[in-house]
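OP here, attaching both records as promised.
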Amino acid sequence: MSIEEILSNLTILETERLILRQITLDDIEDMNAYCSNDEVSKYGSWNAHKSLSDTKECVELILSNYENKKVVLWGIQYKENGKLIGTIEYVLWDPKHKVAELGYVISQNYWGIGIATEAVNEVIKFGFNNMDLVRIQARCFVENTRSARVMEKAGMSFEGIIRKAMFAKSRHHDLKMYSILRDTGL
């Protein structure tokens, strides 16, 4: 698929338990349910949403980015109940070098049952098969052992710690770097 095709019409992806699809205004309440949780935002670069209007602003930004062809972001919908339970995206994409970086967030209610790994595996496959990527990477705060475990379960290799790589929540954070290469990937 061309860059234009990918950014113009995000492909719906499906796994055994999940539908990965574009975010809509109908997702505001579901998104607020997990984005307002301090535990969910603890290891992110963003703060927990304080109100429904914070979430609405976030959704409107995502929609604007879709419209302006600036984002490859899927909402994670749980098939069993139809709820939006997270997002997964290529936060950075360099088509020239065929490299992209994954980011994801999952509702705390769905931690520990393989949801994040299931979504990551599907988006990695999409990246290698449809975006012509050679390398997919992901980073997490050193303290975020759950996210590191997701990356390991998805077949990503630990490459090292990038010191003071992100300024978030009033301080610099060390990040663990993981990656998977097309020739060793899914």
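Record two, same layout:
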Amino acid sequence: MTDRPASEADPLLLDRHGAALDLFTDRVHAVRADQWTDPTPCTDWTVHDLVNHLTAEQLWVPPLVRDGATMESVGDLFEGDMLGPDRIASWDTAAAASRDAFREPGALHRIVHLSSGDASSTFYCGQMTVDLIVHAWDLSRAIGADEQLPDDLVDFAVREVAPYADELEKSGLFAPAVEPPTDADAQTKLLNLMGRGV
């Protein structure tokens, strides 16, 4: 990366992360019992798969940020179904653990050991925040909820992703970016950048 991501200099990073968690939580609580097997904009993922993915991501935060764990030491602990019989409670528990770990004194000054290599905890928190924002839109579309994302979160996500946008598709985890229309608003540009056709 040639530029520092927005999270490196954002004094409101924890607030943005918390708002993104709240946004996704709101959508999880809106999922009806008959919607968990419905498709999402994420290829091959159902609503259950999407929420399970985000739940597992939140469960990774305490060991990585608080304990200094490595991918190898955690192993496959967070693979498979993390939701169990009470999907919403499982999400709420994981989200609270993630929020608490990032908010511990000194947490944002630590180094975390990610699959892509060592990184600052602020960079990791920024990445997690963007993931929550974009997947909140995915979940909203899947369940028919309000798809409008908060402007400040959209602006943050665009600033955060821009320095490494070209690397997203290369990672194999993201679809190719979509060319936005000339009159696209900021949210459309973000979603197009992340491979979503709106």
